[in-house]
Amino acid sequence: MNVVTQAPKPAFPFILLDASGQPSLIAQKCTACGATYADSERVACGRCGGRADVLETFLPATEGTLHSAVIVRRGFPGVDVPFISAVVDLDGGPTIKGTLRNTAGFEPDHAAPGQRVRVRFDDALGRKDKAGGSYIAHYFEPIPA
Amino acid sequence: MSDIYIVGIHMIDFGRHPNRTPGQLGAQAALEALDEADITIKDVQAVFSGSNYTTMIGQKILQQIGQTGVQIINLVNACSTGASAVRMAYTAIRAGEFDTVLCVGVEQMTGLGMLGGAVPGSIPTEGILGSATMPAVFGESGVEYAARTGATQADFAQVAVKNHYNATMNPKAFLRKETPLDMVLEAETIAWPLTKLMCSVNVDGAAAAVVMSEEQVKRRGLMDRAIRIRGSAMASAPWQERDPIMHDVNGPTRLAAQKAYAMAGVDPRDIDLVELHDCFASVELQHYENLSLCGEGEGVKLIRDGSTELTGSIPVNASGGLLSKGHPIAATGIANMYEIALHLRGQAGERQIRGAKIGMTHVVGLGTSAAVHILEKA
Ligand SMILES: [Zn+2]
Q1: Which pLDDT tens digit goes with each residue over B91-121?
Q2: Can B294 be counted among the known catalytic residues?
Q3: Among A135, B7, B156, B173, which is most exposed with the fewest C-beta within 10 angstroms?
Q4: What's the rounded mean pLDDT across residues B64-83?
């Protein structure tokens, strides 16, 4: 039996895998108005309307501040709970959403806005597409004070 | 400029209607609204109808109550769908093309489960991209509000206590049971800080309104039941740095409210009661501020001092709100207007706000679309 091993793919358009499979975040910034977007292929700027030629790609910081989070205790069937759903303002932008992991627990304090977090990359919880391909996703982890 | 009026309005009992089709639910609401306006389907010149889960809902309704061949436009505008229908009737009559328009919002939602979820892609993203469930999305908005204002989970829970109490006096509400504070806080946590009793329920429902020009209202002698639409405004989300990663329900509500106040020529202090979009308990406090019912950061004070209770200075969600009525997405916008109409006509029974002259309705759907109407007894 032939086992076809495929290289993992990025789970989201704001994750970039280089030739060696090394992950980083990728984002777009409007050079006209400064707006940032967790995207890599925008058509135009949603803030000022500037066309694609004013949008430039940049590699955002992998540290940021937790803007808001909730502790999810009832999810869709097949999704393990609890987990912390988090909105993070990356230093210098943009804002991205993701799951906050490696917290000491699942109490409100562990999801408190204002805490510093960093972005880690990891396999997307073992989930695979129909072709058996695996994916690399981003996770937030607390930065110890 | 002559005014535009609601002359017939109705909501069916919200809840479980498994043996009725969406077309039948809409037909039931439409017929009641037509009867109240003392007209028949033959007098209706255009229909604006909406549903998020049933296509071509207006045609399905007219197949039940009379296929007159009139123009039907079906709307899908999330939780603002029903209010969008009234807004479109208002502008169409204002344009002078019609004088009698029927608006209907219908949803059959029993069994849909928790709403939200990420768009289908290569792999399911729930639990990786945080959570896209509605309780999580609105919970995150509530936590943001709490961080800014000092609101606590108990403040959010108090909204559910208030609205559930109001609903004990509303026979059309799905949930008619008082829920003391500890019961709300101890209910199953869905997405902290939101417990199950702080989330609105998916139900089946329909609501309808007949909107008419002033000339037609006078000609038919309907001024005794007429509700004047003094303000009618909608807005989408203005650019904001975190939207749509974090859906913004505040910005569009603020824009729509400002436009509606200006159009009506009234001040927030002139509003006697409000039916606003409490799809989750926390967001009611946000909307106190978004609708200028209080100053910035003062929403918490309004719930703590009882100002928005039935006996307070600005009662909010006398009907029991979405938290109690249930939230059949496209019907909610017109159902909110139905509640205001009851109070303005003095027909709200036990929960009647005495002497109510001007009321405000608000809905906001993720995506985002907000609608605000200011209604007055003619
Ligand atoms: Zn721009």
Answers
A1: 999 999 999 999 999 999 987 877 776 555 6
A2: no
A3: A135
A4: 98
Q: Give the start-to-end residue ranges of the domains of chain A.
A: 9-142
Whether chain A has a CB inside 8 Å of the CB on B197: the answer is no
Domains of chain B listed by start with CATH number: 4-112+202-377 (3.40.47.10)
Q: What's the ipTM?
A: 0.95
Residues A9-36: tens digit of each pLDDT:
999 999 999 999 999 999 999 999 999 9
Gap from CA of A39 to ligand 1 centroid (Å):
14
Strand locations in A1-145, DSSP E? 9-10, 15-17, 23-25, 27-30, 36-37, 55-58, 63-72, 83-90, 95-100, 116-128, 134-142
Secondary structure (3-state) at A119: strand
Report the distance separating Cα B194 and Cα B187, nearest Å. 9
Q: How far is the CA of B13 from the centre of ligand 1 (A)?
A: 48
Which two three-digit tokens encode residue B292?
């200028």
* Residues in a beta bridge with B219: none
What is residue A128's three-state secondary structure?
strand
pLDDT band (50, 70, 90) for residue A1: very low
User: The whole model's pTM is what?
Assistant: 0.96
Angstrom distance (rounded) from CA B378 to CA B373 = 15
**How many beta-carbon pairs under 8 angstroms link A with B?**
129
Q: Which of A38, A69, A71 is nearest residue B245 as measured by Cβ atoms?
A: A38
